Amino acid sequence: MTAFVDLAARLAAEPADAALKDVVLTIAETCAQISRVVASGALSGSLGAAGSTNVQDEEQKKLDVITNDMLSDALKACGPVAGLASEELEEVEPTGRVGGYLVTFDPLDGSSNIDVNVSVGTIFSVLPAPAGHAPTEGDFLQPGRNQVAAGYAVYGPQTMLVVTLSGGVNGFTLSADGRWLLTHPDLAIKPDTAEFAINMSNQRHWAPGVRRYIDGCLQGKDGARGKNFNMRWVASMVADVHRIMMRGGVFMYPWDAREPDKPGKLRLMYEANPMSLLVERAGGKSIEGLTEILDIKPAKLHQRVPVVLGSANEVEVIRAEMRAG
Ligand code: AHM
Ligand code: MG
Questions:
Q1: If you average pLDDT over every residue of the chain, what do you get?
Q2: Distance 51 CA to ligand 1 centre (A)
Q3: Could you tell me if the CB of 195 is within 6 A of ligand 1?
Q4: Across the beta sheet with 169-174, what order do the strands follow?
Q5: Are 25 and 157 part of one and the same domain?
Q6: Of ligand 1's atoms, which has the minimum distance to the CA of residue 87?
């Protein structure tokens, strides 16, 4: 059998500092534990609604709360972490330490899929913490380009961790004995694709550029694009992005007119930014419309943002349509 390198050994080969590796290993270990809780489903009584809502007024599932607590506890116990922020927590939580790193996370992305046994995941982003004082919300509001590490775990047919620190993007598969083994080194997103992911039920609310782009895909060989397209929509960003990591494609959750004041559905700090870093490092592109998501200066912790990411050449086709208005 092939001998696979494990996550700790792979991280040892990275030039990043030891404290950062400690943070990533802590998150990875917690994701392995989350995978077991998610897999136990109804057996552990963890399916269904928690009976509460989060800061964004979304109904929380029991597993949103359980996994948020698991990650929060692990990060508070991890020496180099000065503060954390989560989709499920209204405010940032300083750990009482100064310096080191800040972590933002979506503990269980794809909540609508939990109870129906479709892939869900955990997304995380690591930023440098300020030296000299305990972090406040303002210290978290750094552009995505400042991220020193980012990744996601996807709890699917295989549990996988996809992570980037100082260089490329590597994919690890969770073994039966609970180890993250390097099965997908140096992931690269194909620049061209004929597969898109978007929630088509929002079509009537889209901006004209998005409509024109999707219309072009739907016309297939008979339209100006001259090729047939395929469509997928898992409704778990983690699963949709993972598919793009594996075989290319574009993922879109654009602005739409349902709630015109909200710039999109997905959150910048713990969904769009970490995914954008992974996608760019793997050779893809990630934009909010005309500009790169990683260049956005966040205005608030739970800020939403339109997202278009994936195969580089196809993202440019979409950017051109959006530019045309
Ligand atoms: P969540 O963090 O509450 O699970 O919401 C984010 C999810 C993404 O994973 C996914 O891409 C999107 O919401 C699906 O939205 P929709 O249900 O509108 O298709
Ligand atoms: Mg989410």
A1: 95
A2: 19
A3: no
A4: 93-94, 81-86, 101-109, 120-128, 149-155, 159-164, 169-174, 180-184
A5: yes
A6: 2
